[in-house]
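Look over this entry.
=====
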Amino acid sequence: MAEFLHQRRRQLLLAAVALALLLLAARYLLPAGTATPAAPLPPPPGSGTGAAGPSARVVVDVVGEVRRPGLYRLADGSRIADAVARAGGATRKAELAQVNLAAPLADGEQVVVPARGSAAAAGGPDAAAPSAPIQLSTATLEQLDSLPGVGPATAQKILDYRTKHGAFSSVDELDAVPGIGPKRLEQLRELVVP
């Protein structure tokens, strides 16, 4: 009986090895055309391709207090909440109240999820002179109000412009916001990003 079991195990082992070799041979011997082609990259902005199709994508960089920071490809029209979710969600240290999760994403945008107690999250003394540029496409009213020469009324006009026209694609778009002229734009150029 023991010899029968030993012989049976040996047969099963040989069958498993034969199956593995068969699968490996099939992978290398079958025509290469059976693989699914890779999806093409989205065209660069301003390439003149016309209206974006339903499969349009945006690429964003998610950093800060998220579980898996990095670059993510999302469907055009996605929101910051979608990007944070793709990055594994916020960590326990995250201050999500400082992030406008409903803001639409723009291609090439960086989404920053600040930590609780950081100068940006706390609105502390360093908030008036931010060490990192403020993102026009995701900034809150309070963050915009902290910029030099931008009061609550102008900050609200920036938010209204963003709501009407979508995410900022360039800092130069600020010139279209009432109350921000060429001089103010030059003051803000180093303090903000699209």
